[in-house]
Design goal:
Helix content is 5%, strand content 59%. The protein has 76 residues and is mainly beta. It has a six-stranded mixed β-sheet, with no helix packed on it. The longest helix is centred in the first third of the chain and has 4 residues, at 3-6. The chain starts with a helix and ends with a strand.
């Protein structure tokens, strides 16, 4: 799977169903394995945009990669 294949997928947290954002970058180890993804999210406070936020999700937190969505468990 290429990075371009997953960049447009929505990232959803399984614990509360919240939308986390979209993947903008990945950290890759020296042996070529994905260590974590960097996710871009425009944070909201009471429905108002409060700025940009970057969140990182480790490969172990990813539970399922679907056609349109990636499900993650942020609590891990």
């Amino acid at each position: 799977m290429r990075m371009s294949d997953i960049q447009d997928k929505n990232i959803i947290d399984l614990s509360d169903g919240s939308f986390l954002g979209n993947i903008i970058d990945a950290e890759i180890s020296n042996d070529g394995k994905v260590v974590k993804f960097i996710i871009y999210n425009r944070g909201k406070f009471m429905g108002i945009l409060k700025g940009k936020e970057e969140v990182s999700i480790s490969w172990n937190q990813i539970k399922k990669i679907g056609t349109d969505t990636i499900l993650v468990d942020k609590k891990l």
